[in-house]
Request: fold
Amino acid sequence: MLNKIFIMGRLVADPELRYTPSNIPTASFRLAVDRDFKDRETGERKADFINVVAWRSTAEFVARNFSKGRMAVVDGRLQIRDYTTKDGTRRTIAEVVADNVYFADSKRETAPERPGDGFHEVEDEDDGELPF
Reply:
């Protein structure tokens, strides 16, 4: 049997990092994943909003490095689970359990440069003659 999924999209909100009672980190987030085709009526692309959950070091990595609007690639597996709400209603949820989460954009694309980042713009200056 094979259950492997790859998705790429933008985070619709900052990841939520929590810890289980046994202190295992877990992060949940949603990705807006564009469809490959345009809507016939409107001519616009629609997106699917896919729930993702990451565990342990992957969860901490996501919480530390990703925020709303960042583009991410998730490699994992699809999980379907049932649960019962407080009022007794049975629900089913589909989510991707992430094995790995990768950057799919550059930080410069999504966040303006801030003082203290450790980087600054290099101005065009005449360095004189180069020795080579």
Q: What stands out?
A: Residues 5-106 form a domain with the OB fold (Dihydrolipoamide Acetyltransferase, E2P) fold (CATH 2.40.50.140). Residues 110-114 have pLDDT under 50 and may be disordered. The longest strand covers residues 25-38. The CA atoms of residues 27 and 65 lie 12 Å apart.
